[in-house]
């Protein structure tokens, strides 16, 4: 049996420990981080369906829109028919066709053109090639075109020349002009494009941002080293940063001549 004095000492030690335990230790930093991560992931799972924004919890959101896609100033959007390789003029200009049924200005299609489209479809079914040719001329002269749809039907489409907003690529006969054109063809050939229209340039071309299956075409051409940021007319810092931060330098940057590019190889 222990001496009474020893028991008293032990009781004192116990109470001393109990007193310490009442001062709750702060939770482990690792535990706090784990709990926070679980909460953030739970919030993200409810918002992943959004294509424009990813929200982690209720306080932290990340924009998923590609860089440079500032839609302020957009007048309307066009959804094109699949692009033909011959429609690419150079590294910054494309000719596209838009189904008039889905065109923002569909109500402005001349009645003569609508009727010519209907009559030409009938003439094609009847193999009346003379009449087909005459009606086609009416359609083409008005800036429209008939193209065959997936089901074999004739689609009346409006022709537009598109100038890629914010970049400048060498023309076909300039150094690396061929490479720029070929890269743009490779990217858009056979694809339907979404084009955000901002303005019309002095050549009558529509100026817009081009989206090809989620790829921001201007950014793509900049990253390939086949265009430079047209900062005189486009002041988007996002595109300017892409151009400046690339792991290469264009001849334009070295010589101050904006007409020769060294592509990223």
UniProtKB/TrEMBL annotation:
One of its GO terms (cellular component) is cytoplasm. It comes from the Eukaryota. Gene3D superfamilies: 2.40.50.90. Residues 79-228 form the TNase-like domain. SUPFAM superfamilies: Staphylococcal nuclease. PROSITE patterns: TNASE_3. Pfam families: SNase (PF00565). InterPro entries: SNase_OB-fold_sf, Staphylococal_nuclease_OB-fold. Residues 1-21 are annotated as: Disordered. This is TNase-like domain-containing protein. It comes from Miscanthus lutarioriparius.
């Amino acid at each position: 049996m222990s001496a009474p004095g020893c028991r008293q000492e032990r009781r004192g030690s116990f109470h001393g420990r109990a007193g310490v335990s009442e001062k709750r230790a702060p939770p482990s930093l690792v535990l706090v981080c784990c709990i926070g991560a679980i909460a953030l992931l739970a919030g993200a799972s409810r918002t992943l369906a959004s294509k424009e924004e990813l929200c982690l919890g209720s306080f932290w959101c990340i924009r998923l829109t590609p860089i440079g896609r500032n839609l302020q100033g957009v007048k309307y959007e066009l959804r094109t028919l699949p692009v033909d390789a011959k429609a690419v003029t150079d590294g910054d200009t494309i000719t596209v066709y838009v189904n008039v049924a889905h065109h923002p200005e569909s109500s402005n299609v001349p009645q003569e053109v609508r009727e010519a489209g209907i009559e030409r479809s009938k003439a094609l079914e009847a193999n009346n090639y003379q009449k087909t040719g005459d009606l086609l001329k009416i359609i083409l002269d008005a800036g429209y075109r008939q193209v065959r749809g997936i089901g074999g039907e004739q689609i009346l489409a409006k022709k537009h020349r598109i100038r890629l907003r914010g970049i400048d690529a060498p023309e076909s006969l300039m150094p690396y002009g061929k490479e720029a054109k070929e890269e743009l063809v490779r990217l858009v050939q056979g694809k339907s494009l979404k084009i955000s229209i901002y303005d019309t340039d002095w050549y009558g071309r529509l100026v817009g941002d081009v989206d090809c299956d989620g790829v921001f075409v201007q950014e793509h051409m900049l990253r390939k080293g086949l265009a430079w940021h047209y900062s005189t007319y486009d002041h988007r810092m996002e595109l300017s940063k892409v151009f400046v931060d690339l792991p290469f330098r264009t001849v334009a940057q070295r010589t101050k001549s904006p007409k020769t590019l060294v592509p990223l190889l």
